[in-house]
Every structure is written in C-alpha cells, then in structure tokens.
Design a protein that fits this description.
about 270 residues, mainly alpha, about 5% strand
Length: about 270
C-alpha cells in the first residue's frame, strides 16, 4: 500500500469490525499526517489520566445524570475545555492532539474527548450525528437526555434538540427520529474528515483536501461524490490521467447526475490534451 505511514496506521485501525475501531487511535492517525512527529500514545495516556481523575470525582450513586455532571465539572470547570467560537474553522479544531493540548475544539472533537473519558470509566455513551451540530448521549434505553460537548456539556432533551436545529437553520425544523440516531464509528470518523475537507477546500489547500478525500474513500470505498471531488482536485492539480479515471467512474455510477454533462465535457477536454 503506497500510503504515508500514518495513513497505513489509519487503514489498519478502520479495517476491522466497526465496533472494534478505536476512535481515539483512528483520530490520532488522521492527525499524524499533519503532525508527523505526533506520538499517539502520549495523547492516549492523557485520556487515560483524565478518566482516572474523573473516576475520583464520581459519586457513590452512579446515576447517568450525576456521572454527566461529574464529567462536565472536570472537563469544563477544572480543565477549562471550551468550544472554539472565536475561530471555529481553524483546522486545529479537527485534530485530536490539538484539541487535547489547546483544550478547545468543535462539537465532534470535543464529543470525542468526552466519549473517550466516558468509555474509560465504563459509562457507555454514543455519538449523535444531528445535522449541523454533533451531540452525544448515554447509551441506555429511554435515557432521554443528550449532551452538548461544545456548550460545556449542556444537557438537552428532544425538545431542546429541535429548538437547536431551528436555530441552526433559522427556520422551524421538525426533529426527525433519524436526526438523533447513534452514528457508527466509521460515520463518526467520516464526519470529522468532512469537516477538514471543507476547511481545506475553503482555504484552497488542495493537496491537504485531496489527502482527506483519500481517507474518506478508505472508510467508504467507491462513494460517487468523493470520487467526483477527488477527480476535480486531480484536475486542478494537473494530474489529468487520475482525474479522468475518477470522473469517468463517477459518470458510470451516476450517469444522470445534475453535473454529469459538465463533467463529461471536462473529461473530453482532458482526454484531448493527454
């Protein structure tokens, strides 16, 4: 596999049953491509230490709400973790090592820190891929509460989630049950990578955006939209043979896509000049 070493580690981690994927390890392997000197064990040990310190704060009666309150006190009051509202689109907010060191991030990476601590104290929680704002919740039947790791561990009920959605989209939004379904580990990592992809595209960091898409395609091989976007990046980077291959595959998969005619013209133009 002709990949950077960090990507090989990422591939090894995700190339197993979904529930066996270690999210923290996979996220740190994502970060290793940006920070080649990164030692994942340093940050895994930091999470172990955090969990051990939370364990000491837990009350004798380990009711879900009390455990959440204990984690909240530790993360947001004692350690000072905070959602980065000042520079939300700073790519460092999407790298777990930076989030742990700087104690700031975006909803999904702060949720990851929270989930990792909860896992280590045997308090099962799951990620909730609500549109526009990632949440987490205790993994108990009918528990009825959600936690907003970005907003100091604010506890939400379903009515609050619906209100949050309406605020995000600036119009009344009905809370579809699918909006608050748990996400798989692969979907969790894909959402992290999608954030990075959009950031790098907006910053015109084409090589970095390409590397992100390649990892998305390791998670979900053959996804048509990612093949198209990788092909367009190859085109912009002057790698026309690779661009044609991806874009032609895209056209085979979705021949009636809205952008199919424009993609065909682009492929024809490149083929003439190859």
């Amino acid at each position: 596999m002709d990949f950077p070493l960090a990507r090989q580690y990422f591939y090894q981690e995700i190339h197993q049953p979904d529930k066996q994927i270690n999210l923290a390890k996979a996220a740190l392997h994502i970060a290793q491509e940006e920070y080649p000197e990164l030692d994942p064990n340093q940050y895994l040990n930091a999470l172990d230490t955090m969990a051990a310190e939370v364990e000491e704060l837990l009350p004798p009666e380990r009711y879900p709400l009390r455990i959440v309150q204990s984690i909240n006190k530790y993360l947001y009051e004692d350690l000072g973790f905070v959602g980065n509202t000042v520079d939300y689109y700073d790519p460092r907010n999407s790298y777990l090592n930076e989030v742990i060191e700087r104690r700031t991030g975006i909803p999904i990476t702060l949720s990851l820190v929270y989930l990792e601590i909860a896992q280590r104290i045997d308090f099962p929680m799951v990620g909730i891929g609500m549109p526009g704002h990632f949440l987490i919740r205790p993994d108990f039947e009918d528990v009825g509460i959600y936690v907003d790791a970005f907003n100091r561990g604010e506890i939400l009920f379903e009515a609050d989630c619906q209100e949050r959605l309406s605020q995000i989209y600036q119009q009344p939004i009905e809370l579809n049950p699918s909006f608050v379904e748990p996400v798989s580990n692969r979907r969790f990592l894909a959402r992290m990578l999608m954030n990075l992809k959009l950031i790098y595209l907006n910053q015109n960091e084409l090589e970095k955006a390409l590397a992100v898409i390649e990892r998305l395609l390791l998670l979900f091989p053959g996804v048509s939209a990612e093949l198209r976007d990788r092909g367009l990046l190859y085109y912009q980077l002057g790698q026309w043979a690779s661009a044609c291959l991806d874009l032609e595959t895209y056209l085979i998969q979705v021949p009636n896509a809205d952008d199919a005619d424009a993609i065909r013209l682009l492929v024809e133009r490149m083929r003439q000049d190859l």
